Amino acid sequence: MNRHTAREKAFQILFQLDVNDNKPAEAMEHFLENETKDAFLTMLVEGVARNKEEIDKMLSEKLENWSIDRIASVEKTILRIAIFEISYVEDIPDNVSINEAIELGNTYGDDNSGKFINGVLSKFVQ
């Protein structure tokens, strides 16, 4: 599985975790069914789930005239993945994480999601 696909699947799993009260390992197993586990996917899902409170705190600190509770679940989940990559994963360039997040936002969010995500994440790499 390439990293783009892993990010997309991580987004889908983490989005479900935000709605349901499952454990990350159970959610991945259920979502992937017969697919082989991917190390990058596992790192993203478990890393975001484990560091969610700290990631949300970092996100809240960067928001201007906006609260984290007002962010739609799609954008919030995408931002969490990108912030995790930027803050915790050293071998991924920040611009790659941001571009991947924008792509996910354009695919799964509304017409303004990509711009919103870009604006928020740009504050993490200034």
Automatic annotation (TrEMBL):
<dbReference type="GO" id="GO:0005829">
    <property type="term" value="C:cytosol"/>
</dbReference>
<comment type="similarity">
    <text>Belongs to the NusB family.</text>
</comment>
<keyword id="KW-0694">RNA-binding</keyword>
<keyword id="KW-0805">Transcription regulation</keyword>
<protein>
    <recommendedName>
        <fullName>Transcription antitermination protein NusB</fullName>
    </recommendedName>
</protein>
<dbReference type="Pfam" id="PF01029">
    <property type="entry name" value="NusB"/>
</dbReference>
<dbReference type="GO" id="GO:0003723">
    <property type="term" value="F:RNA binding"/>
</dbReference>
<dbReference type="GO" id="GO:0006353">
    <property type="term" value="P:DNA-templated transcription termination"/>
</dbReference>
<keyword id="KW-0804">Transcription</keyword>
<dbReference type="InterPro" id="IPR011605">
    <property type="entry name" value="NusB_fam"/>
</dbReference>
<feature type="domain" description="NusB/RsmB/TIM44">
    <location>
        <begin position="4"/>
        <end position="125"/>
    </location>
</feature>
<dbReference type="InterPro" id="IPR006027">
    <property type="entry name" value="NusB_RsmB_TIM44"/>
</dbReference>
<comment type="function">
    <text>Involved in transcription antitermination. Required for transcription of ribosomal RNA (rRNA) genes. Binds specifically to the boxA antiterminator sequence of the ribosomal RNA (rrn) operons.</text>
</comment>
<keyword id="KW-0889">Transcription antitermination</keyword>
<dbReference type="InterPro" id="IPR035926">
    <property type="entry name" value="NusB-like_sf"/>
</dbReference>
<dbReference type="GO" id="GO:0031564">
    <property type="term" value="P:transcription antitermination"/>
</dbReference>
